[in-house]
User: Which sequence fits this backbone?
């Protein structure tokens, strides 16, 4: 068995002013796990993805819009973004999220 490491998600990524920072944790053919840090006011414009994805808020607050409906998430909250549904994100404060995308 390979050496395993225990990590704290909050400590694996740092904020950068007026930016979005990402760090890939797992990148496999069947899916990805990516950690993001958004500065306040930063976001992702509306788009679609061909796969289901889970957003888990590690710290801070975000507004997630899915098919035009807004959802206010805070630390510890999660939401599933269904495949092919338009979605967007806007940081209400500095926030960190774990994005889990399942391709298969």
Assistant:
């Amino acid at each position: 068995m390979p050496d395993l490491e225990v990590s704290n998600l909050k400590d694996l990524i740092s904020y950068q002013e007026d930016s979005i920072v990402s760090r890939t944790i797992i990148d496999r053919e069947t899916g990805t796990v990516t950690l993001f840090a958004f500065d306040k006011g930063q976001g992702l414009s509306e788009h679609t993805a061909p796969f289901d994805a889970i957003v888990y808020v590690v710290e801070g607050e975000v507004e997630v819009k899915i098919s035009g409906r807004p959802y206010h998430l805070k630390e510890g909250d999660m939401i599933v973004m269904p495949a092919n549904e338009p979605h967007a994100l806007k940081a209400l404060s500095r926030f960190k999220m774990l994005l889990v995308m399942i391709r298969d």
